[in-house]
Amino acid sequence: MIVNPNWRKPTSKPCFHQLSLNFIDKLGNYQEQLSKYKFDEKTYLNELKQMLSIEMKRPDFIAFVLENYTELHSYIDSGRIYIRIHIDETGKIWFGVG
């Protein structure tokens, strides 16, 4: 254990956004409609962007989800509904799934 009080501490804290269960449910329902009615990808991404802008306010998180929506869907399809979007102090963003 480091006990040196002069030890350099990080200046910024990593943060995350927990996707709400309501959002996950809406996204799951939308996925069903997507497969049933065969929406094109552009329409789907526009709808997803609108849903995300209601869910969260960070543009970098929204852009991350839009770029990685297939990964997000794979988590939902497998029944993993406790999903966080993490960012560290270097700006690296990833999904955390529980």
Q: What keyword list fits this structure?
A:
98 residues, 51% helix, alpha+beta
Summarize the structure in words.
This protein is of the alpha+beta class and 98 residues long. The protein has one domain. The protein contains 4 helices and 3 strands. It has a 3-stranded antiparallel sheet, with no helix packed on it. A hairpin with a 5-residue loop joins strand 2 and strand 3. Helix 2 (41-55) packs antiparallel against helix 3. The protein is elongated. 9% of the residues are buried. The mean pLDDT is 86.
Short account of what is shown:
With 98 residues, the protein is an alpha+beta fold. Helix content is 51%, strand content 14%. It is built from 4 helices and 3 strands.
Order of strands across the main sheet: 1-2-3
Shape: elongated
Which class best fits the helix and strand makeup? alpha+beta
The averaged pLDDT comes out at: 86
Number of domain units:
1
> Which consecutive residue ranges, at least 5 long each, have pLDDT under 50?
none
Total helical segments: 4
**If you compute it from the alpha carbons, what radius of gyration comes out, rounded to the nearest whole angstrom?**
17 Å
Quote the distance from N terminus to C terminus. Answer: 29 Å
* Range of helix content: 40-55%
Largest sheet: 3 strands, antiparallel
Order of helices and strands: EHHHHEE
**Beta strands, count:** 3
Strand content: 5-15%
